Amino acid sequence: MKTYIIKNSEKAGFLFCLCCLLVNITGCKKIVEIDQPTNTVTSIQLFTTDAQANSSLAGVYSQMMTNSGAFTFSNGGTDLYAGLSADELSSVDKLSKPYNYQFETNTIQFDNPNPYIIFWKPAYHTLNSVNNILEGVAGSTSPQLTDSARRELNGECKFVRAFHYFYLTNFFGDVPLALSADFNQTAQLPRAAQANVYTQIVADLQDAQSLLPGDYSAVVNKERIRPNKWAATALLSRVYLYQQRWKDAESQASLVIANTQYSLTAPAGTFLKNSSEAIWQLQPNTSIPPYSQYAPIYLTAKAIWANLTPAVQAATLTLPSIFSTIYLPTYYLSPQLSGAFEPNDLRKKTWTSAVTTPASLAPFNGSVVNQFIKYGPNSTVINNVPACYYMVLRLAEQYLIRAEARAQQNDLAGAASDLNVIRNRAGLPNTMAASQADLLAAVAQERRVELFAEWGHRFLDLKRTGKAAGVLGAITSKQPFNSNQLTYPIPILDLQNNPNLAQNPGY
Q: How far apart are CA 418 and CA 443, in angstroms?
């Protein structure tokens, strides 16, 4: 969101960088042309053809995934920072990145730049983009912009807007609700109550459901890289779950589960591009190192220890500096998460990899460290084509949403049935949980080991269920636990330039 008052040419130049959309790295034209706002309404590009409008929207997805080669919440930042805020991830070198370490230790300071750089700025940047497209489509009278294209553009933009506000409100609480590309309307917006933000999210997703196609025919090779009706439905089921609208959450999840174009795969195939489990994925751009797949870059080592022969492992253990550079990721799975898997869980076998550290390498000193390999090693690129796309929405979550919603409605058999689908896929027996309380605990456990290091599910689950203080407060590195840290600080720049904003408690 653009909340700055232009006072001099230096700030105006800075604002221009924030407000102008970047050239689509994949070769498309600029996403949307935006004149620098002063005291006038921002200029909107009026689209004249389907191709022009679709190029603009493709640019939005490219920017979400690439961020011009920088780290952002939509290309892995949520996995990392929410994972550190929860009990999923720990850093190898805790002193080299002090701002990141604040998330791990529950000591985020008000001047930490990462909430702004990773979450706030890129989210409002994209919101401005889709608001521009929505207004550009609405204002166009060109007969070459077809009705079918208008419908799909409107639906996708509203989906993207809902998606971004879901994360903004869950990380920051009450947030400015910018629904216009008019700088004069958005620059001084106050924070909207979270309930109102959710009302807008639901409205946008319901519109997206009615506007979007039910398949992927609009994409070359029918790749699952643009959201369709079922992506909107899947996100809506999650939103209803967060609102404790159990019946509605169950209903929406059931619609997705019943759709035959989606099916669970073996764990090894889950994160492959266009997996049958994928409802929506973001496509990496191989022209921008490191292929815009930041989750494996930070959470997966350069080489997998298990691939070495015993002789090479033994030799490498004598070289701790080389070991830590090559065989340890920047961030590894916390002891709490590593110990959460049941014996014989295929998810731990397939989606994590263990490495025994050298005895001389402090602070590990011979202990076993587990890492994230859901997307495979960093080098999983064949003929310049990634084997995996970045998973955003997938079918397994829908089963877990429905299981929780059913348990909350006392449909215990239905909840157990959905849990068993997920457990059996992971090679585990049916759940033994029978009571409502036990089933809800079983759902939380399955969400923990199924969705780990994906889009902040664990952190947001602990927050929405009221269990964050009890679970996270028991971790030594997070003590003394401060519940204010469950909501990130509003960025200083926006507070300075918008007197209608107020800081979150505790900052």
A: 9
* Six-digit token string for 82: 């929410």
Q: What are the strands, taking DSSP E only, across 352-468?
A: 352-356, 368-372, 381-382, 385-386, 390-394
Give the separation between CA 404 and CA 440, rounded to whole angstroms.
6
Instruction: Give the count of alpha carbons within 13 A of 279, CB side only.
Output: 23
Distances (CA, A) of 78 to 72, 119, 168, 197: 8, 8, 11, 20
- 8-state DSSP, 76: T
Contacts of 413 (CB under 8 A, 6+ apart): none
Rounded Cα–Cα distance for residues 55 and 49 (Å): 10
User: Cα–Cα distance between 475 and 130 in angstroms, integer?
Assistant: 41
Residues 6+ apart with CB under 8 A from 104: 84, 85, 89, 90, 91, 94, 477, 478
- What domains, with CATH codes, occur in the chain? 27-212+466-507 (1.25.40.390), 294-378 (no CATH)
Count, residues in the chain: 507
CA-based torsion, 182, 188, 194, 195: positive or negative: negative
Residue 380 has φ and ψ, to the nearest 5°, of: -75, 65
User: Which residue type is seen at 323?
Assistant: F
Tokens of 219: 């994409």
CB 135 within 8 A of CB 44: yes
pLDDT tens digits, 249-262 = 999 999 999 999 99
Kindly provide the b/e burial profile for residues 224-243, where b requires at least 16 CB atoms within 10 angstroms of the residue's own CB. Answer: bbbbbbbbbbbbbbbbbbbb
Amino acid at the residue 143? P
Residues 6+ apart with CB under 8 A from 143: none
Convert the pLDDT of each residue in 36-52 to its tens digit. Answer: 332 333 456 779 999 99
d(CA 31, CA 67): 13
Q: Which residue is listed with tokens 């330039």? A: 497
Angle between helices 436-450 and 412-425 (to 10 degrees): 30
pLDDT tens digit sequence for 72-91? 999 999 999 999 999 999 99
Q: Is 481 exposed, middle or buried (0-12, 13-18, 19+ CB in 10 A)?
A: middle
Above pLDDT 70, what percent of the chain? 88
User: Residue 54: left (phi > 0), alpha (psi -120 to 50), or beta?
Assistant: alpha
